[in-house]
Structures are given as C-alpha cells and as structure tokens.
Design goal:
0% of the residues are buried. Helices cover 48% and strands 0% of the residues. It is built from three helices and no strands. The protein has 56 residues and is mainly alpha-helical. It has a domain at 18-54. The protein has helices at 21-28, 31-44, 50-54. The protein is elongated and about 45 Å long. The longest helix has 14 residues, at 31-44.
Length: 56
Amino acid sequence: MLFYFHPWELDPHQPRPPMPWRHRVRHYVGMEREERKLAGLLRDVKFTTIRDILAI
C-alpha cells in the first residue's frame, strides 16, 4: 500500500477560493479529523520505503 497526503490537507486556515460545492465537499469535509487520523496511522502502522519494498 502506498500512502501520501498533501500538506494543505492538514491546514484548516488555508485560503478557500470560490469553487463549486462538490469541490468544497471533497477538499474540506472531514479536515478537522485529518490530523487525528494521520496520528493514528503513524502510531499503528509500520511504514517502510519504496526502495525496501522493491528490493524484495
């Protein structure tokens, strides 16, 4: 599994330009829980590098 996130996904104070409602939903709904979810992943999941995975 590959995991990545964008830094803006953790910034509740980012600029919010006008956009269609469906884009606002995708970008902003759940943002207040994102940091807690990331902390749980970092606590509970063992991560490695792609280099280590490809060496197998």
